[in-house]
């Protein structure tokens, strides 16, 4: 079994893909499920999300997302996991569109067979799900920020890699070796996230609570699994 870490989304994925966007899309996605959401849809653009919900208030869809860390006009929520943790999404389908994370998931879904969303909050459960589904390769894909590598995602990829290496034999690529090194030298999760460029950006926006929330290691056993194309509306995952 191969284990690979892409420091940014690229290339093709023959088997299992674990998408990581710790600050904040995948952390928030896990939280939506923890707070009762029936399903998640990840759209390619904000317009697809807005069209899906239409003008109906109180319908099945709730829109969450951000641009540059700030909410998208017309959306019900931003992309704050700490905010989502205080809501009840029971009976709702949460439609997400974010700057980096949902795009990374769409890239993965173009070729991957099984796509899982992972954060630090569901890291051990995500590693178990990926290991159980994989037959030849597990690719951990870091979303990054605006096309730049994100320390927080590489650190989380290192956490996932450590869990996976404890679960069985893997040949690892240089990306996985880099992620393991970042994990082993990055301090605890909060130190790593707080030292990242995007973590500092969020803190400057007054969103430091999201950084602290995202550092909660394996606090959830829920793993969002995206099934490309199956019944999902056009332009969504
Ligand atoms: C993203 O998906 O681009 C990130 O989660 C951005 C953010 O919400 O801070």
TrEMBL record:
Gene3D superfamilies named among the record's database cross-references: ComB-like
Catalytic reactions of this protein: (2R)-O-phospho-3-sulfolactate + H2O = (2R)-3-sulfolactate + phosphate
Keyword terms, alphabetized: Hydrolase, Magnesium
Pfam families, per database record: 2-ph_phosp (PF04029)
InterPro entries the UniProt entry points to: ComB-like, ComB-like_sf
Molecular functions per Gene Ontology: 2-phosphosulfolactate phosphatase activity; magnesium ion binding; sulfopyruvate decarboxylase activity
This protein's record includes keyword Magnesium: yes
Coiled coil region boundaries: none
Magnesium among keywords: yes
Essential cofactor(s): Mg(2+)
E.C. code: 3.1.3.71
Family membership noted in the UniProt record: Belongs to the ComB family.
HAMAP family listed in its UniProt record: ComB (MF_00490)
Protein's name in the database: Probable 2-phosphosulfolactate phosphatase
Gene that encodes the chain: comB
């Amino acid at each position: 079994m191969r284990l690979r870490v892409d420091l940014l989304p690229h290339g093709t994925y023959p088997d299992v893909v674990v998408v990581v966007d710790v600050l904040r899309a995948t952390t928030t996605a896990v939280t939506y499920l923890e707070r009762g959401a029936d399903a998640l849809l990840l759209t390619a653009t904000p317009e697809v999300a807005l069209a899906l919900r239409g003008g109906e208030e109180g319908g099945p869809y709730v829109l969450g997302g951000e641009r540059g860390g700030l909410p998208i006009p017309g959306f019900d929520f931003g992309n704050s996991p700490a905010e989502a943790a205080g809501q009840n999404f029971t009976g709702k389908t949460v439609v997400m569109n974010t700057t980096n994370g949902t795009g990374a998931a769409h890239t993965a879904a173009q070729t991957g067979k099984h796509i899982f969303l992972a954060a630090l909050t569901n890291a051990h459960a995500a590693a178990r799900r990926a290991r159980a589904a994989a037959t030849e390769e597990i690719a951990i894909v870091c979303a990054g920020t605006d096309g730049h590598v994100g320390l927080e995602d590489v650190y989380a990829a290192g956490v996932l890699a450590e869990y996976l290496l404890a679960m069985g034999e893997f040949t690892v690529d240089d990306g996985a070796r880099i992620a393991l090194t970042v994990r082993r030298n990055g301090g605890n999760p909060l130190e790593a996230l707080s030292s990242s460029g995007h973590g500092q950006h969020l803190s400057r926006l007054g969103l430091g609570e999201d950084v602290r929330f995202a550092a909660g290691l394996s606090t959830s056993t829920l793993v969002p699994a995206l099934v490309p194309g199956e019944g999902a509306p056009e332009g969504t995952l």
